[in-house]
């Protein structure tokens, strides 16, 4: 294995921003902290397409350097926040100046990005996502974890659906997209038991919790103390109607798996996205009360109200809303 050492700019800025900065500081001497990284030659591809296709989606383009050997495009681990301490793991692609070949280099350092902690999510479920991430083969992992565990706190895959590129599927609304699609719902017996007693559902897609760049969709309920109880979470390659349909249906599958009656929720609390509403109606097909998420609504109203010129009227409207 060939190991080369190249100086790397310690920068968390994207390509364009770096160039912009250079322009602004054209007359100043920009001093940048340099850091050495050991790069390991992972593979060389005959052309750029093949090389780029080999890059997992945990990598995001960061910046480009032009060197005598060719263009080097650096990628950062996107499991670390863009603004903040970066993960030690990174890769770069060398587009050889003298041929079509492209070499992929990887840092010697392992991933050390800080995993985001999200309040309310079961530790087991979190561990589950990590395992999913570390394990390359998603489908195999799902298959191996569908058994309902005896331990009520152990996470398991309630249901999953993996659609491959070449497969035909009925998701007309997503047809323009390419690439594989998947949906996985993970929960535990304890969380499903909580679900079985719930009459109202909360659903939202959160981008605070991301697995391989895909949204994590969370469903749950709130108790009278306003504490949120998640039923489990879904990782999905999208957040459209079909994805929420999948989650709501997964809850019903979960009810069957723990021998409980199917759920007939009477209320849905969400940010009123059509995808969530339609998914809910298609699965539970019951008449329900659409309850808008209060926090989402207030944010929206504040956005509108601040466009009103008369500050007195604006203030009155906000006060009226809060009286509701
Ligand atoms: Zn990382």
Structure description:
By secondary structure, the chain is an alpha+beta fold. It has two domains: 3-107, Single Sheet (N-terminal domain of TfIIb), CATH 2.20.25; 123-292, no CATH class. Helices cover 30% and strands 32% of the residues. The chain is built from nine helices and 13 strands. It has helices at 15-24, 48-53, 123-134, 138-144, 189-196, 241-257, 274-284, 294-305, 311-323; strands spanning 3-9, 34-45, 59-67, 70-77, 90-96, 102-107, 155-163, 181-188, 200-211, 214-222, 228-236, 267-270, 289-292. The strands form two sheets. The protein has a seven-stranded mixed sheet with strand order 7-8-11-10-9-12-13, with helices on both faces. It has a six-stranded antiparallel sheet with strand order 1-2-6-5-4-3. Strand 12, helix 7 and strand 13 (289-292) form a beta-alpha-beta unit. Helix 6 packs parallel to helix 7 (274-284) and helix 8 runs antiparallel to helix 9. The protein is globular, with a radius of gyration of 24 Å. Bound molecules: zinc ion. Zinc ion is lined by residues 77, 79-80, 87, 89, 111, 113. Zinc ion binds next to loops. This is MULE transposase domain-containing protein. Pfam families: MULE (PF10551). Residues 201-298 form the MULE transposase domain. InterPro entries: MULE_transposase_dom (IPR018289).
């Amino acid at each position: 294995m060939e190991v080369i050492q190249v100086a790397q700019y310690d920068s968390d800025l994207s390509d364009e921003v770096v160039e912009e900065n250079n322009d602004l500081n054209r007359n100043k001497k920009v001093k940048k902290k340099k850091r050495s990284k050991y790069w390991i030659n992972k593979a060389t591809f005959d052309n750029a397409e093949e090389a780029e296709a080999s890059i997992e989606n945990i990598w995001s383009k960061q910046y480009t350097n032009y060197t005598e050997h060719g263009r080097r495009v650096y990628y950062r681990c996107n499991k670390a926040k863009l603004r903040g301490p970066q993960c030690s793991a990174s890769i770069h692609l060398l587009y050889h100046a003298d041929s079509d070949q492209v070499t992929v280099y990887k840092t010697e350092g392992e991933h050390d990005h800080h995993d985001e902690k999200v309040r309310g999510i079961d530790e087991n479920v979190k561990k589950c996502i990590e395992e999913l991430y570390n394990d390359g083969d998603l489908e195999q992992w799902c298959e191996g974890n569908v058994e309902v565990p005896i331990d009520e706190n152990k996470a398991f895959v309630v249901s999953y659906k993996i659609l491959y590129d070449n497969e035909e599927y009925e998701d007309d609304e997503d047809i323009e997209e390419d690439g594989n699609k998947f949906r996985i719902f993970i929960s535990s017996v304890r969380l499903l038991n909580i679900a079985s007693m719930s009459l109202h559902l909360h659903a939202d897609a959160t981008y605070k919790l991301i697995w391989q760049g895909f949204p994590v969709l969370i469903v749950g309920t709130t108790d009278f103390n306003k504490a949120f109880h998640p039923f489990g979470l879904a990782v999905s390659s999208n957040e459209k109607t079909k994805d929420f349909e999948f989650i709501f249906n997964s809850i019903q599958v979960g009810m069957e798996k723990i021998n409980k009656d199917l759920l007939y929720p009477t209320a849905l609390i969400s940010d009123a996205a059509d995808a969530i509403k339609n998914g809910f109606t298609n699965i539970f097909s019951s008449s329900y009360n659409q309850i808008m998420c209060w926090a989402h609504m207030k944010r929206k109203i504040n956005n509108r109200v601040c466009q009103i010129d008369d500050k007195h009227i604006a203030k009155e409207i906000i006060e009226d809303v809060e009286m509701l």
